[in-house]
Protein 1
Amino acid sequence: MKPFRAPGWLTGTAIAAVAAVNLAGLWGIAVARQGAIDEARRGFGVEVTSRATALESRLSGVRADLAFLGGSPTVARLGGDAEARLLRQSALLLFMRSRIEVVRIVVRSADGEVLAHVVRRGGVPILSVSPSPTGEEGAAVDPSRARLTANLPREEEATLAGGVTIETEVEPSALLDDVAGGPEALRTCILSDATGAVLARRRALPRPDDAPGGREVQAQAPVRAEGWSLPGPLVLACSQPEGTVVGLAEPVWARYRTTFALNTGVMVLALLLGGLGVQQARRRARLEARAAEESRVRELERQLFHAERLTTVGRLAAGIAHEINNPLEGMSNYLTLARDALGRGDTEAAERHLSSVRQGLERAAGIVRQVLAHADPAKAPKTPLDLNGVLRETEEFVRSRREFGHIRFDLDLADGELLVRGSPVMLGQVAVNLILNACEVQPAKGEVRVSSRGEGEHVVVDFADRGPGIAEADRPRVFEPFFSTRESTGLGLSICHTIVQQHEGELTVHARDGGGSLFRMKLPALTDGAGGDGAEAPVS
């Protein structure tokens, strides 16, 4: 099975494409909303301009209506009798009722005589009783501010009927309220002259959704006031909270709001799923690579374990060859003696010699079976055995090897039998490895001491040497596979530890008093009646 390959750049490109498409959609929606907002702001400026035009029309209309009124016989003949004069002054009152921004009208004759004087008080036009107006009468007059007045006719205009002149004054605030469209239309409007002097100001009531201290949108437009007393052009400046102006674009924004939310959600979900997919793919690739590596390591461990066991068999065979040679030499001698006895006709002596030959054959066969069992120890069954016997045989085998002639062996076994349930071949392998290791690390005239004892429900065996010992920092790792302080494979002690664990025991290492190391094997003791003659399943 080929390992799974992460999508790499292809997945990254797909995620980038999804993100780019969604970002383009979001950008388009944002641009459309900003365009609607800009259009609403332009609309606000157009509205202010239209109101300035309406203001111009109101001022021009006042002058045009007064010029028409001044040219009519009604105003030109104000100088008749009292009844006729009162009737003609009523025409001026009616004019002021239709023009709420006009607060004063004075009609003079050609020689300057006041023919009529109409003012507005309390919002109601009335005839003034003052025979000679000073220009400071009327409810709209405030000496502290500039006045917006006009005289008809001007020098370049034709004279009115009867040579009369008309002087009029308008209230800028009333004029501004009339064209502003009520308090709900605009936030704040200011009417000022060309010098910047404020003529009128109108503030709308604050809206509940207006943020205090927020940004405002401003616009202004000129107001031509030809024929009026203040220098022109006048300026109409209006401002409104930005939220109110932007609210004009709300219908356009509401059209895209659901699309905006869904698009954002899809983009976030796509990025999350894409990132999760890449993460899972990389995680799967790492797991498969790790599994392949672990499988390879396990195979190498199996091969090394097998090689170590074969090495142990080789070491055993090198010593066992000497053991096999002894019975072979004895068998050869006994066969010679049996032949000589037969030659003399002593059949009884020949039979005794052949019996000795048979014993030698059985001994050699037993040694061969032991070697074969070491070659495949997993098939060795667990049976009740005397651990002291295994230790004696192992110690005698290692002692017989010439290369360890300089080592002093001390065997201190418990009295009687130490019964355990296990494989004599596998436990013999543990004893051989531990004793051989103890011998190989010894300098000249070294010492190996093997002792056994019973401790409650356990049997304890100590393998002690007088070698350099094992550093305290290395003791926790001494039974790990491939760990070695002697440039070996590092599998011998690991195999011994595994075999002891398979026998439900434990193998530990300690520092020996006086120098050296002490390996302690602890196995469950076989109590009376716990044994059996039947063989158990092989140990894996």
Protein 2
Amino acid sequence: MKITLQHLTYMLLAAMIILSPACNKDILNKKPLNDYSDEDVWKDPPLVTAYVNNLYLQMRHGFNEVMLSSVSDESRFIHNYGTQTSVTDALSPDDLGAFSSQFGEWEKYYRAIRNCNIFFEMIGQVPFTDEAQRQRLIGEVHYLRAYFYQILVKYWGGVPLVKKPFKLSDRDEMLIARGSFEECVNFIVEDCDKAATILPPKHEQPGRATKYAAMSLKSRILLFAASPLFAKPGIPATESYRGYVNSTPVQQAERYQKALDAAKAIIDLNVFSIYKPTSNATDNYARVFLDKDNSEIIFARYFNRQFQGTSHDLYNGPNGYHNWGGNVPLENFVSGYQMADGSEFSWANSTHAANPYANRDPRFYATILYNGAKWKKRPSDAIALDPIGEIQTGRFEKKNDQGTIIIQSGLDTRASAIENWNGTYTGYYIRKFMDLTLDAQFFRGDQSWPWFRYSEILLNAAEAYIGLQQYDNARPLINQIRTRAGMPAIPNTVTGDALTNAYRYERRYELSFEEHRYFDARRWLIAENVFTGPANGIEIFGKLNPDNTLTWTYKVVNSGQDRVFSEKHYLIPIMAAEIRRNDKMKQNPKYN
């Protein structure tokens, strides 16, 4: 491994700015940067810390321009970037669309795994004066390797397990067959257990993997292993999925018990709790993602406004605020929000249809920007058009200066008077994670991306309890989350499939836009139903009344994207180039 000037400079910046307090000013004075070699790195503890910091930067956070939600039934990305391919039958071994460039990133994660393996090979010879620092880094890299593998496994099923670095002379050894799903899960769990044993509960500076992060990753992957896609032999129907999904038939209950044990190991620590800083349910939910280091956050990616601030608000804010409007929520998702009393919303209900954004689950108001929602002060060139700061995603009648009724498009539509591009196709924008005080066209935010939070762990345990038919144990865990959300508790009479459906609602809307829904719908084997069909939006029109008020009407429409999720998509295809270069690599079923 020859370390280039660019690579080393990047690692040093990561060490000094993003994560580590161990890097000091003397690093830059030791030697000209272009003289560093791999031998130099493994002789210098600060450079080794920088090397590990660069591994952290390979972890995908959710504040990217293209969100994973836009290949699920949560949202649509308005600029494409390969997402159109990824949500149709155009997805193929020759073209993975966004799964190649944005999400799965096979090559990126295998490079990261290779660098983890190099670390393990070399770390023993590094001259640390503090042995505790060596051990801490070893624990962190076990966590990081487990994280990279679980990403690959969630997309592809069983993948090649590379456990050591290879040289160019080892070409034949580099051609590795895919491990079974079970083997991969066991390896991930093993790395998580090693990390949890070594790592401290917290660090002096946040952002580095902890004992609790490793335990949470173990909980997540074991729940995946217990899910219908991965635990029931022969599902999907063809036996050829076996080996990539299972190596041998297993009892699903055994896997659910392991998933439950992993989640309860965190719950029983009583370290984390549901965050409720106010008496307002909507504010409580919104602040989980804005208040730093609150009681619910287990492990997060931190951002510094000056050096590496997040552009989430710019990427997703309305075009009427000079933002890019990128990942716009679908009506498919919005319609699913329950009413505040826990009943289902329905467009067939005339009361609901007349005022669809009233009396919904309080999390709706912290997650979705909809026509009429109160929002930020408009930028200076638009405030005269909207002094209130109210989202405008519909068309409406108004009187011009001559008293003639004309039709005007809202400031946040694709026919906006401010910007007629970057507008939503669906009538909605994302509200979740947004900083109300930030002028995103000029400044970056410092919100943290929650890789793991306590709500997920409670839901993981609840799902495992349901899988084990221990409904009375599952219900209180779900109700902890519903109570914080201001929603009525699930009654004790709800069991079986009804409780499964109530749980899946809670997971879908509590964890929305946190990169869970795409994987959840696949592992539950419901993606063929919920990911297929039109990506719907809402057409909104305001008719002017004699008293100059507006009466709004709403019509569900296709936003312009038809989606197809086929049985084969439960695992995405191995890239054709990878199949060609490795004759031991077998393709996922039905892509041949």
